[in-house]
Each structure stands twice: as structure tokens, then as C-alpha cells.
Amino acid sequence: MEEELLLLRLVKNNGRIENLSKQGFEYSQIAKMISKFIENDYIAITPNSIELTSKGEEKLILLNTKLKRNKIDKFISPQKEYLLSEKKSIYDIYLPDKI
Amino acid sequence: MKSSKKLRGISTIHFAKLTSIFLNKSWEIDDGDNEYSSFNRFCTALSNLSDQEQALVLELTEKFTKIDANNYPDYLSQVLTEFINFNQKELKKIQKIYIAPLISPKDFGKSKSSTAVQYFIRGIVSTNPGIASKRIIFTNGLEVSESLINKDDAILLLVDDFVGSGATALEAIEYLNRTKNIDKSKISILTIAALEIGETNLKLNLIPVYYAMKFNRGISDCYCSQELLERVSLMESIETKLHVHEREKFGFDGSEALIKLIRTPNNTFPVFWKEKKGRIAPFPR
Questions:
Q1: Beta-bridge partners for B75
Q2: What phi and psi, each to the nearest 5 degrees, are found at residue B151?
Q3: CB contact under 8 A, B31 and A18
């Protein structure tokens, strides 16, 4: 469900597909999701654009509600690839692999 | 799939277009976790290009032809039938048809697709009514005898899956003519696909060529004026990033082909096959 929400947001804003692939999905798995969305009439593709249909917009609202996304979280998805596996104490010093 | 370079990424519109192209062409999108599938390779290759460059590659991909090995018998049947229909009168006096792989002397001993094509043809000649009654002899490479082929009742067919610029075919024919004393008028070429330039070069040398499909240049013959200049400039920029050799620019000898057979010919634009310095290509050679 999380990935469906992110894909709908990416379509709405013509974002980079790597936002999904970085979360562990192969490109081919994302393609499968896109073709399912086209089949379900959530997205429409023209030669120069891709957009959510009204059914797609409804699905986006529905997923936001189901996943309890409120306020700014309705518009922005977390970049899960940057989440740390365990919570750090406020006294810990954390240095990421790449600075 | 990890590329050794930092990825620029693919916009959702370009990704959706690529998905549509694969679905429309019935190219397999392996949706398992095979990171080396053609689709995943394609995406990795695209993600290293700018948005405009990606748009050009997608435009060319829409015109791209991919022929799998399991389609070879059908295409070869078409070519054989084309050859028979065109030569009905001449074939009446022919009793022996020699079939050899089209191979340049410099490639003797190498594994080439023409040998596979010769093998595929074995499976279809016996059921083709136009030649089933003739004696069909499959040669070992270009090991042929002038005393057999230069006879009135014999001909030699050189077979391959692809004729690009025609240079390989002309080298083979020169070898047969000069070293083996085979009369050029005895030779015909049968191939699944040919480039227009290859057909022209062979016809200039009076060698008939039969094919199931023929292609012109993917950019130069399809656009004009500003549209052409823009696309040429974009492709040059892509090929600079790919470190393409001078002779491979826009495909070998500038062939501008958009085709993949069992193996991708080097006549195809290098963006589809060039793997250098860790680059992942959609259809590597």
C-alpha cells in the first residue's frame, strides 16, 4: 500500500522513479505496478504527459486516509532508504557512510 | 541493477513510456527479481542519460525490432519463398542447391550466427514445395568446389540473419570468387534482415539479396531540417558519454540500425549495446 501511494505521488508530480527503486523494488516490479494502474484507470498517458485520472486522485485520497497520512505527510512520502534501523539516543553521534 | 556511475534517474513519464513500449511490442518484462532482465538493463541505461537524451532513446526504441531465435524459422521460410517466387523460371533447370553460411574469411573458425541460420534452414527446406524436390547440400563453411557449383544445374545460397553495410558479404563473395573460382552469377544471399545500404552495395556488385525485412537509417532517413539536427546532436552527446569508437558512431560505418537478432549487430546505434567502463546496455553484444 505504501508503494502504491508513493507511485501515485510520483505520477502526480512526474517525479523520479528511483524514489521507488531505492526502496528495494526492481524496475520491472514498478513497471508491473504502472501497468496495473493503467488497467485500473488510475493514470493516463499521452505522448507528452502522465497524469492521475479522477479515479487515481480518489485512490490517492483513499490511501492517504488508510495510511493515516495527515497534514504535510499527505503530500510528502518518507525517503525510507535514509531511515536508520534503530533509534539513536540524543547523546549518540551518528556519522553516515557518505557525507 | 547497479551501474558503476552515479544515476541521474528516470522521470515517471519516461518510465511509463518504456513500460508501454515493452507491452506494445510484447517484449518480456520479467517482474521477478532478475536484475539482468532486458527491462531492468534498459532502465539502468536510461537512468545515466539526460531527460532529452532519454526521450530520443525512447523514440528510437519505438522503432526498434527485436527478433528472437524462435522466430527464425518463420522469417527464413518467408525469405526462401520470396527467393523461389522471384526465380521460378531459373529454378526449373536447377537440380542442386548448395547452402553455405555467409561468413567473411577473417571470421573463419569463429562462432557466427550465419552457421546457426544454415542449421535453421535445414529444418524448413524439406517442406517447401518450391525446392523440396531438389537436392539440397549444406556446405561446411565456405568449403565449396567450383566444379560442382559452376555447373548449369547448380546454385549457391549464402545465408545469414543480417546484412548490414554489405562489407562482410562482399568479403565472402570475393573469397569465393578469387580463391575458389566460384562464378558470382551463381551466388544469391538470403537473410532475415537487411539494411538498405547493404542491399544497394550488393546490387552494385550484381549480387541478388533476399530478405524478410529491410530497414533504412533510424535518424537520418526519418527526420529533416531542425528535427534532424537536434537528434543528431543529442545522439552525438550520448555517444561521447559512452566512449564510442570513431567507426562505431551511429552504428558501424554510420548504419543507424535499430535491430537486435540472436546477437545485436554493431550496425545498431551503440546506445543499445555498448558496454564500456561499467555501463549496462539494454541489448549487449
A1: none
A2: -70, 160
A3: no
CA distance B279 to chain A (A): 17
Q: B210 and B85 share a domain?
A: yes
Contact call for B16 and A27, based on CB within 8 A: no
Distance CA B148, CA B278 (A): 51
Task: Give kind and range of the element (H or E) at residue A62.
Answer: helix A54-66
CB B170 within 8 A of CB B203: no
Shared domain for B91 and B126, answered yes or no, is yes
Domain total for chain A? Answer: 1
**What domain range includes position B127?**
69-215
Integer Cα distance of B43 and A56 in angstroms: 25
Residue B281 lies in a domain: no
CATH assignment at residue B184: 3.40.50.2020
In a domain, B196, yes or no: yes
Q: Name chain B contacts of A31, Cβ cutoff 8 Å.
A: 15, 18-19, 22, 29, 31, 39
DSSP secondary-structure letter at B195? E
Domain that holds residue A46: 2-82
The string of pLDDT tens digits covering residues A7-28 is 898 888 888 888 888 888 888 8
B contact set with A (CB within 8 A): 1, 7, 9-13, 15-20, 22-23, 29-35, 37, 39-40, 42-44, 47
**Partners of residue B10 in chain A, C-beta under 8 Å:** 16-18
Task: Inspect the interface and report whether the beta carbons of B16 and A45 lie closer than 8 Å.
Answer: yes
Residue B17 lies in a domain: yes
What would the pLDDT profile of B197-256 be if each residue is shown by its tens digit? 999 999 999 999 999 999 999 999 999 999 999 999 999 999 999 999 999 999 998 999
Closest residue on chain A to B58 (Cα): A47
How many domains does chain B fold into? Answer: 2
Residues B51 and B23 in one domain: yes
